Amino acid sequence: MSLKTRVNTDQPNTGHRYQRRLSDKLLNLFDLACDTDQLLVAHDLLLIIDNLLKRPTVLLKERRRVVESTVAAHERLWRLRHPETSAMTSRESKDQSDV
């Protein structure tokens, strides 16, 4: 059976099936890479997502959502690569909230 004719029999046939966006799949892989301490892989996945955003075929509504998620992913990777700085920022925030 070829890849094109393979059918998922786990779900009922509804006429069309929901397909996750490529950016969503890549962001999920990014999270997995971060969770397993594969920071170089996570970085490479972010570069791929950034390249995806440069394509003119991405719709404006989708682009906004993907950009927000990508910014959050960049921030997560930065915090993982700089734990001492993010720990200081957390303490400073706590100190200011105590005032």
What's the short story on this structure?
The chain is mainly α. It is built from four helices and no strands. Helix 1 (22-35) runs antiparallel to helix 2 (39-53), helix 1 (22-35) runs parallel beside helix 3 (60-81) and helix 2 packs antiparallel against helix 3.
Please write out the topology.
Blueprint: H1 22-35, H2 39-53, H3 60-81, H4 83-98
Helix pairs in contact: 1-2, 1-3, 2-3
Q: What is the 3D shape?
A: globular
Helix residue percentage? 55-70%
- The share of residues in extended strands comes to under 5%
Low-confidence segments, given as residue ranges, are 1-9
Mean pLDDT: 78
Beta-strand segment tally: 0
What is the radius of gyration?
A: 19 Å
Sheet bearing the most strands, described?
A: none
**Which class do the helix and strand fractions yield?**
mainly alpha
Compressed to H and E, one letter per element, the order equals HHHH
Number of helices: 4
Structure description:
- This protein has 99 residues and is mainly alpha-helical.
- It has helices at 22-35, 39-53, 60-81, 83-98.
- It has a domain at 22-83.
- It has four helices and no strands.
Keywords:
99 residues, mainly alpha, 4 helices, 68% helix, globular, disordered N terminus
